[in-house]
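I had to read the description of the data format several times before I understood it. For illustration, here is how one protein appears when written out as sequence plus structure tokens:
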Amino acid sequence: MRFLALNYGSEAAAATMSKAEQEAELTAYNTFGKEEAEHINGGEALHPTSTATTVRVREGRTMTTDGPFAETKEQLRGYYILQCKDLDEAIAVAAKIPEAKVGSIEIRPIVEWD
């Protein structure tokens, strides 16, 4: 089964990290990537929500707004696509994502179309 692991954390906290803290976080992510390579089918870090554009279509009219749809305390900072035998294994892998220690990881099964 494939799962999407959405990594949520505080952009404000990330912006105040020292160089050493940033390097430690990068090292933690690199270590996670190497240790869980068999489960990772893809993933990327995302630019801050200040770079986001939200698109809506209402009554046939396309509207865009800067930023995310709603104000939240945690922002989507990245994602992984995980290949796991079941939800329990996906939870075990997600618990090792560094963001889980300071933010949260949302796991969602990916629909497999025939």
